[in-house]
Amino acid sequence: MTLNDIASPADIRGLSDEKLATLAFEIRKFLVSSISETGGHLASNLGVVELTLALHSVFDFSKDRLVWDVGHQSYVHKILTGRKEKFSTLRQFGGISGFPKTSESIYDAFNTGHASTSVSAALGMARARDLAQDNYEVVAVFGDGALTGGMLFEGLNDAGHSNSKVIFILNDNEMSISQNVGALAKYLQRLRRTKGYFKSKDAIEDFLGKLPIGADTATVAAKKLKGILRQRVLPPTMFDNLGLNYFGPIDGHDIASLKTVFERTKQSSTSSFIHVQTKKGKGYKPAELHPQQYHGISGVKVAAKEDYSAVFGKTLCRIAESNNKIVAITGAMPLGTGLSEFSKKYSNRYFDVGIAEEHAVTMAAGLAIKGFTPVVPLYSTFMQRAYDQILHDVCLQNLHVVLCADRAGIVGQDGETHHGLYDIAFLSHMPNITLLSPSGFDELSQMLDYAINVCKGPVAIRYPRGNTQVPAIPFEIGKLPMLKDGKDILILSTGRMLKTAQKVADTTGAQLFAVPTIKPFCTELICEQSKGKKLVATIEDAAITGGIGSLTATALCEAGIGVPLLRCAFPDTPITHGSIVELDKLYGLDADSIIKKIKEKINV
Q1: Is the pLDDT confidence value at 215 over 50?
Q2: Which of 192, 340, 344, 511 has a 20 to 30 Å separation from 122 between CA atoms?
Q3: How far lies 316's CA from each of 311, 382, 447, 487, in Å?
Q4: How far apart, in whole angstroms, are the C-alpha atoms of residue 318 and residue 372?
Q5: Residue 83: DSSP 8-state
Q6: What pLDDT, in 10s, does the model give residues 551-591?
Q7: Is 385 a catalytic residue?
Q8: By C-alpha distance, which of 331, 248, 237 is closest to 51?
Q9: Can you state the angle between helices 17-38 and 49-58, rounded to 10 degrees?
């Protein structure tokens, strides 16, 4: 049987381990070829081929439930569940998602995209199963990077005293996107060196099974003896101490061993924690040697251009030369957020806290209250996870923490879980905060300088993915630069969309203002310039509720200015995946669509 013969997971059940190994080779070959065309997460999927094959050999996930943490490693699962022929559309507009989607397949149990959520979701499913008196297995697969997230341990802590059975699988490849850090990474290193844990455990049980203790009382005594022997021979892991039955470490590329332990935990009535070791990029030498570079690859080979993240990192290094109070904090994303050079030049002022955004922000508050200036770049979609910490620990105390919302706005192929559309809404209503939005590299540098060296309280800068920008605009806090004069129409725009707004203003003859300072919002100027206009339009790369359109509507209403308002932003619905150009057009945010809306609004 070849990969082309696999229509569903049922086709691989009963295959010999040798045939499954051959299938693993074919899957890796297909992944490298296909993802090279479409782009996507390569290294992580190459690492879970045998793990995924073993899971689908033992479990029936048309009724059993499988939750992938983050979900970017679910490509092999998708191939085996009838979506191989759609892989040419992976992450493309109108195609299959790069993450699990319940709307795509009955085999996708839960929509994921952020780390450390799988344990909680799986435990919820298990409790639902037990409440409904149903009968199926629930399996959660998460990486060692997810172990740095507090939510996962909240779930494990709960699961350890729950009577609802879940099978937890730790896919330990020593990586998230970057090398994992912290005490847990060191703990897993020690566990990896504990060879033969699983075999020793079997040996103890085999020994006890041969003792002449057939009576019930003797069985109870044997269980107690087993516990004593295990503690002497195999000290309990932290996962055992959480109340979970630990198995491992197990070679994650040995299909026979994986199937054995999966069958065993399937038969158990209690929750298990299976520690599987895999190699990120397995089977493709470039990805094995450079897993960070091959974590996510682009399907279009273009020359690398400087982007906002790189400009941020370069500017931060420059400012840090003369300001030794600056510290930088990352949530396991030094490369993605532009901090690689800072981490080398100022290693004593650089902190990678792992996938722990909440901890990152409150730790920043602790640094700030003692006189340091912490700079915390997080992808906008991940900054959402630290909402309470930003409000409670930073803003209410009016602490000088510099938050940088990278990947603000639409991000493209990663889709609804990764778009950064909500930061204006959830940051602008916080007390004491200053919120800035550059529309070019030079403006970002000016804003970062202001945020670090001038601003005294909480400040956030949101900037997009990529390099879309307008010519340099001098930045001055609270000022709205007029880029074009006009009579009947006023356009306000910010960030990436300012370039589109310029095209719209050129065609419609509108007056155009950039909005680099979102908070404090320049209410007086906007109200003054709106008087006598036939239309005010706002254009932004953000959710329509809570963006600059909402702020403008409030300002005009409170001032009693009855001018018509057109808000051009993304709707309050999940935004699909696709290229930025395709998504702008789909949601009416390309220049032609906005021009058409304006003309309809003023009856031209």
Answers
A1: no
A2: 192
A3: 8, 21, 11, 41
A4: 17
A5: I
A6: 999 999 999 999 999 999 999 999 999 999 999 999 999 99
A7: yes
A8: 248
A9: 130
How would you write 257-315 as a 3-class SS string?
HHHHHHHHHHHCCCCEEEEEECCCCCCCHHHHHCCCCCCCEECCCCCCCCCHHHHHHHH
Sheet holding 489-493, edge to edge: 482-484, 511-514, 489-493, 535-543, 565-570
pLDDT digits (tens, 9 = 90+) for 17-50: 999 999 999 999 999 999 999 999 999 999 999 9
d(CA 154, CA 394): 24
Active-site option among 50, 174, 357, 443 = 357
Tens of pLDDT, residue by residue over 227-271, are 554 555 556 788 888 889 999 889 999 999 999 999 999 999 999
pLDDT at 296 over 80: no
Main-chain dihedrals φ then ψ at residue 206, nearest 5 degrees: -65, -40
Q: Is 528 a catalytic residue?
A: no
329, 351 contact by CB (below 8 A): yes
Structure tokens belonging to residue 484: 């074009």
- Tell me whether residue 280 is one of the annotated catalytic residues: yes
Which conformational region is residue 95 in: left (phi greater than 0), alpha (psi within -120 to 50 degrees), or beta? beta
Catalytic residue among 28, 65, 201, 385: 385
Query: Would you state the structure tokens that stand for residue 472, as one six-digit string?
Result: 């340099």
Residue of 595 and 206 predicted with greater confidence: 595
Catalytic residue among 280, 462, 465, 519: 280
Q: Do 148 and 332 contact (CB within 8 A), yes or no?
A: yes
Q: Which two tokens stand for residue 91?
A: 């992450």
Are 452 and 319 in contact, with CB atoms under 8 Å apart?
yes
- Displacement of CA 593 from its chain's centroid (Å): 31
